[in-house]
Write a structure and sequence with these properties.
isomerase, carbohydrate metabolism, 224 residues, 8 strands, TIM Barrel, N-acylglucosamine-6-phosphate 2-epimerase, alpha/beta, binds N-acetylmannosamine-6-phosphate
Length: 224
């Protein structure tokens, strides 16, 4: 499971749109994914079996599947084996999940979940973490890739603005013996280049590419 899933210095595009977004649904997300692939994305991150299935049928790059069970409440990113299995069945060839040490909804351990995904689904696992400690914990639990996805979204803090947590990427890359994925609030080319300078293997960009509603809102708020 330790072979790199994505090429070094690659960009993965996250194609996600919640129910409040006019682009919500597998059709729009598959089009977003095709556009991202045409632009050179090395993979697509997508949420839920319906979107993962549509995107897997539409692109030839790897689909990094997640299965959110809520919108930012406790451990909500692919918290259980069943949620992971559903997105792999839909076509995901790598699964991302919450890799923090916070209590999981089924009371299970991260190490057991990662082992079960490896054994029964045969796909690599990316752990979404919020701190260096969580990254160490997730890697020790068997995660194949570790990403900074959850920095700023848990009680453990984060950079405190709408920029990426480059310090966390640097700390993770300096210590962990696996590819580190920079994810969360990457908006610009400079952000992406800084992540690779900090040691990232891959950068996942979501909102800045695939959420015109949020991009527009950010611009509108800036000129208020
Ligand atoms: C914290 C959380 O649930 N993050 C989610 C994880 O899949 C998505 O909502 C983000 O859009 C994704 O991580 C990409 O980040 P950004 O959209 O900032 O480029």
């Amino acid at each position: 499971m330790s072979d790199a899933v994505f090429p070094l210095r690659s960009i993965v595009v996250s194609c996600q749109a919640g129910p409040d977004n006019p682009l919500h649904g597998p059709g729009p997300m598959a089009l977003m994914a095709r556009a991202a692939e045409a632009g050179g994305a090395a993979g697509i991150r997508a949420n839920g079996p319906a979107d993962v299935a549509a995107i897997s049928a539409a692109v030839s790059v790897p689909v990094l599947g997640i299965n959110k069970t809520s919108d930012r409440d406790g451990v909500y990113i692919t918290p259980t084996f069943e949620t992971a299995a559903a997105v792999v069945k839909a076509g995901a060839t790598v699964v991302a999940l919450d890799g923090t040490a916070r209590p999981r909804p089924d009371g299970g351990s991260l190490a057991d979940l990662v082992a079960e995904i490896h054994d029964r689904l045969g796909v690599p696992v990316m752990a979404d973490v919020d701190t260096l400690d969580a990254g160490r914990y997730a890697r020790a639990a068997g995660a194949d890739l570790v990403g900074s996805t959850l920095s700023g979204y848990t009680a453990s803090g984060g950079p405190g603005d709408d920029g990426p947590d480059l310090a966390l990427v640097k700390a993770l890359a300096g210590e962990l013996d696996c590819p580190v994925v920079a994810e969360g609030r990457y908006w610009t080319r400079d952000d992406v280049l800084a992540a690779f300078d900090a040691g990232a293997h891959t950068v996942v960009v979501g909102t800045a590419v695939t959420n015109p509603m949020a991009i527009t809102r950010r611009l509108v708020e800036a000129v208020r």
